[in-house]
Amino acid sequence: MPVSVDNSQIIYDALKSVGVELMSALPETWLVHLVRMGEDDPDMKLVRLNKEEEGVGVSAGAHFAGAKSVMLMQNHGFLASVNGIVSLAQLYRIPLLMLISYRGHMGERDPWQTEGGLSTEPILQSMGIPYHLLSDPAKVEKEIREAQTLAESSMRPVALLLTRDLMWED
Amino acid sequence: MKRADALEAIYDDLKNKLVVTNMGAVAVELYNLGHQPGFFYMEHSMGLASSAGLGLALCLPGRKIVVLDGDASVLMNLGTLSTMARYSPHNLTHVIFDNESLLSVGGFPSATSTGTDLALVAKGAGVKNTGLYSDIEGFQGAYDEAANRDELSVLVAKVKAVGPTSFAMDIGLLENRFEFARHIKDLRSE
Fold first, then answer.
1. Do B44 and A56 touch (CB under 8 A)?
2. CB contact under 8 A, B83 and A49
């Protein structure tokens, strides 16, 4: 499976460096190494979900408890979480760092991913969620730190889209 | 059993716990008994009160967390029972008031009115300590056991489909949210 282990490690290390203690996740191909890194790390609380929207609640609870968290999901999981993001994270001003694998974008081979790829950015924009595309491993640490900083200061959701360039090695 | 009476029966214990409620009648009836800084009323995002309780329980292992929920909210996020069972936080009690109705939005029957048994669903999801209670004494006894138990409990209380006469609460959503977070911060620094 040509998912980049090196770049997954860079992402994981960046999450650790900003103090993330809890990671909620629903596995998908591009995220397998990140989920495994969370699993192997005794200091990380990994919460495997049945549906991504649960993760918004888990992150809200973690925030109230004073813990930094991240939601790790595919863009279709983001789509499945929209109500929780709006009516919990946005309504109640919860800092919510979301790392979203950007399927269905340029280079996507799976036909079933393509509609989600079309709607991801327009929906993030319509919700007023700041987001960046992560493509360059050299910038990952800075981008994650800045996204976390903005989530905390604005007390709102912030998204980073993990692109094929970053996650996949053909 | 009326939910307001069931809440009153356990209120003395709830006062000193961190409590997350779902939206609607449960929140108002708890509030009417006397607001506490450890009470967070999640006035939307149906189904996620239990997920927030799970996040709190995992991150605050030294504190008991109580989630007060409703049948329709749990039905909207049934997967939460299996996620809770998977991690089985020792410090989480999940109370589901089951009035078989979407009471706060017109009283339409929920799926528990046609046979879905949420205590059995919880059992099937892997929750060891679960039960269904239809009178105050039974519920109060089960709650007291859960409060003293160092394991996850999911209690289903069958209640009448009656709610408060007014849904007014003199506390803003964000006021409640920031007070709750501040209270936990103070507890952690004790």
1. no
2. yes
Please report where in the chains the tokens 């813990």 appear, as a residue: A67
- Specify the number of domains making up chain A: 1
Q: How far apart are CA B47 and CA B38, in angstroms?
A: 20
pLDDT, one tens digit for every residue, chain B (190 residues): 999 999 999 999 999 999 999 998 999 999 999 999 999 999 999 999 999 999 999 999 999 999 999 999 999 999 999 999 999 999 999 999 999 998 877 889 999 999 999 999 999 999 999 999 999 999 999 999 999 999 999 999 999 999 999 999 999 999 999 999 999 999 999 8
Count, in order, helices (H) and strands (E) of chain B. 8, 8
User: In chain A, which residues have their Cβ closer than 8 Å to the Cβ of B82?
Assistant: 50
Can you state the angle between helices B79-87 and A53-64, rounded to 10 degrees? 50
Instruction: Tell me how far apart the terminal alpha carbons of chain A are, to the nearest angstrom.
Output: 10
Considering only CB atoms, B59 lies closest to which of A51, A56, A65, namely A65
* Alpha helix ranges (H) inside A41-163: 53-64, 75-80, 82-84, 114-126, 140-154
Give per-residue pLDDT as tens, A18-30: 999 999 999 899 9
B121 touches chain A (CB under 8 A): no
Helix, strand, or coil here: B153?
strand
Domain count, chain B: 1
Query: Taking CB atoms and an 8 Å limit, are A66 and B177 in contact across chains?
Result: no
Residue A126, domain CATH = 3.40.50.970
| pLDDT of amino acid B190 | 85
CB contact under 8 A, B180 and A45: no
- Give the CATH number, domain containing residue B169: 3.40.50.970
Angle of helix B118-125 versus helix B79-87 axis, rounded to 10: 40
Give the nearest partner residue to A61 out of B47, B52, B174, using CB atoms: B52
Contact indicator for A120, A102 with CB cutoff of 8 Å: yes
The reply to whether residue A47 touches residue B55, judged by beta carbons under 8 angstroms, is yes
* Cβ-contact A78, A139 below 8 angstroms: no
Range of the domain at A127: 5-167
Parent domain of B11: 3-189
